[in-house]
Specification:
This protein has a single domain, classed as Four Helix Bundle (Hemerythrin (Met), subunit A). Helix 2 packs antiparallel against helix 4. Helix content is 88%, strand content 0%.
Amino acid sequence: MTGAVLTLLSSQLKGMREAAKADDVRAMMQHDMRFHEIIIEASGNNVLLDMWHSLRIETGTFVSVIKSDWDLGMIAEMHAPVFQALKLRAPDLAAKQLRNHIEFFGSLVLKSTQILQSNESQNILRRADHGIEVRKTSRREKAKRSRAQSP
């Protein structure tokens, strides 16, 4: 890990912290994605870099952050242990911190997705229940009118 790469990572971490203070989700995601991209670029693994770009992780993460109550400051600070491990040039520690980071955010995205799906399911059920109630009322009204019209 070169000093130049560490400087770039430090700049992105600083940008994440500033975006968190400003509650700027878009800027936060840009700095977050660039932080990860710099690490992948530094690995020299072009296949991994191509895969990273093809996943378009920033889109899903952006939506998850907007639709959830994630703390942007927490998101920024979750990058600090990764940065520190890279700064120490401790590959095993860096690998551990990266794995923890990815698994933690993966679990947050999964929970957010499950909550959003659950909320959408509840909304569908409410609309369906309302529709059933409307149909029941409509049938009752028809029956009343029919009885009222009968001799």
